[in-house]
Design goal:
By secondary structure, the protein is α/β, with parallel strands linked by helices. It is built from 8 helices and 11 strands. It has a single domain, classed as Carbamate kinase (3-Layer(aba) Sandwich). Strands 4-3-5-2-1-6-10-11-9 form a 9-stranded mixed beta sheet, sandwiched between helices.
Length: 242
């Protein structure tokens, strides 16, 4: 295992999954087949010796800024979104453990019967012991997205990179699902992402990564083997860095 770690491009990674990525072919909730696929992808990359942490969103169930939250108190709506990420985290943990991957679910909102409370040193120790760590509950604070939670947790746990899995194979100058002439970037700077208003991660998350020089790779989550290839150093998707 030690020799495989030395050959890896990234020893410790933070994987960011949107809640919508758990939809699979469904319009609401969790697609059991797709979450099982995700668990196999994560398990495959983890088996190479990479230490993996995951931040999952809750948009497939509830989002604090969604249409369904209009008229609600923003703090209450955001708390509902945080609880949705715990549901997704439990589902992903179950899928990973059925795939034979030791996993721990840590929540920024304390609920001891369901998940461990987030403690930075404990999270790092879990990864060092070979467990996949799932961070749920966002940052534990309203007004902050799970993108920001991903950037924060990545820095706290000293991840080498954030890997953001999406439905497209990188960052484009416009939505490639709507515009067939959209141009893909192989590499782009944090400032260009902010100035062009590209929907990679929210501005707070991008600014945090820029301030701490934490690179981001946006890649196609649905193409089998991509996560393993990225951990192994293959160039895929779009790299965001200085």
């Amino acid at each position: 295992m030690a020799s495989s770690r030395k050959s890896l491009a990234f020893r410790r990674v933070l994987l960011k999954l949107s809640g919508e990525s758990l939809l699979g072919e469904k319009s609401f909730g969790i697609d059991r087949n797709f979450i099982d696929y995700l668990a196999k992808e994560i398990g495959d990359a983890h088996s190479m010796g990479s230490q993996i942490a995951v931040v999952v969103g809750g948009g497939n169930i509830f989002r604090g800024v969604s249409d369904s939250a209009q008229g609600m108190d923003r703090v209450s709506a955001d708390h509902m979104g945080m609880l949705a990420t715990v549901i997704n985290g439990l589902a992903l943990m179950d899928a990973l453990e059925r795939a034979g991957v030791y996993t721990r679910l840590l929540s920024a909102i304390e609920m001891r019967e369901v998940a461990e409370p987030f403690i930075r040193r404990r999270a790092i120790r879990h990864m060092e012991k070979g467990r996949v760590v799932i961070f749920a509950g966002g940052t534990g604070n309203p007004y902050f997205s799970t993108d920001t939670a991903a950037a924060l947790r990545a820095m706290e746990c000293k991840a080498d990179i954030i890997l953001k899995g999406t439905r497209v194979d990188g960052i484009y100058d416009s939505d490639p699902l709507k515009n067939p002439k959209a141009r893909k970037f192989d590499q782009i700077s944090y400032l260009d992402v902010l100035q062009k208003g590209l929907k990679v991660m929210d501005t707070t998350a991008i600014s945090l990564c820029m301030d701490h020089r934490l690179p981001i790779i946006v890649y196609d989550l649905r193409r089998k083997g991509n996560l393993r290839k990225l951990v192994n150093g293959e160039k895929l998707g779009t790299l965001v860095k200085e």
